[in-house]
């Protein structure tokens, strides 16, 4: 998994404190967002799932988690189709696994900025 902070660096003007703040917010918020995504997927609540995945996409772009962004994008499209399939649970689980890998990597990136 690769993390590319170049977009975050661009939008913060290279301000390391601001970059650290944004990374901290992401690290703090991602577990709850992923939990909601998994819950909505397992409950087959496609409307809430579509909404939650949509909210997560920009954050993933900011911190350069493009692989995870693509999965979230696919999950959002599946949810917004209005037709439940087992692929939705599979994608939600995949996002959860990616997040477990991503958070330690983001902690490392944060340390590098300190």
Describe the structure.
This protein is mainly α and 114 residues long. It has a single domain, classed as Up-down Bundle (Four Helix Bundle (Hemerythrin (Met), subunit A)), CATH 1.20.120. Helix content is 82%, strand content 0%. It has helices at residues 6-11, 16-42, 46-62, 66-80, 86-113.
Strand and helix layout:
Layout: H1 6-11, H2 16-42, H3 46-62, H4 66-80, H5 86-113
Helix pairs in contact: 2-3, 2-5, 3-4, 4-5
CATH class reads Mainly Alpha
Instruction: Give me the count of strands.
Output: 0
CATH architecture, please?
A: Up-down Bundle
Coarse morphology: elongated
> What class would the helix/strand composition place it in?
mainly alpha
Query: What amount of the residues lies in strands?
Result: under 5%
Named CATH topology: Four Helix Bundle (Hemerythrin (Met), subunit A)
Assign a percent range to the helix content.
over 70%
Amino-to-carboxy terminus distance: 22 Å
The largest pleated sheet is described as: none
What is the rounded Rg? 14 Å
Low-confidence sequence ranges: none
Round the mean pLDDT to the nearest integer and report it. Answer: 94
Order of helices and strands: HHHHH
């Amino acid at each position: 998994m690769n993390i590319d902070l170049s977009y975050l660096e661009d939008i913060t003007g290279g301000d390391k404190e601001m970059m650290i703040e944004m990374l901290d917010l992401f690290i703090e918020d991602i577990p709850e967002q992923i939990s909601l995504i998994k819950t909505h997927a397992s409950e087959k609540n496609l409307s809430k799932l579509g909404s939650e995945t949509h909210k997560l996409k920009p954050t993933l772009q900011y911190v350069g988690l493009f692989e995870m962004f693509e999965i979230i994008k696919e999950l959002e499209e599946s949810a917004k189709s209005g037709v439940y399939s087992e692929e939705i649970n599979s994608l939600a689980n995949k996002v959860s696994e990616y997040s477990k890998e991503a958070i330690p990597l983001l902690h490392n990136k944060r340390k590098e900025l300190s």
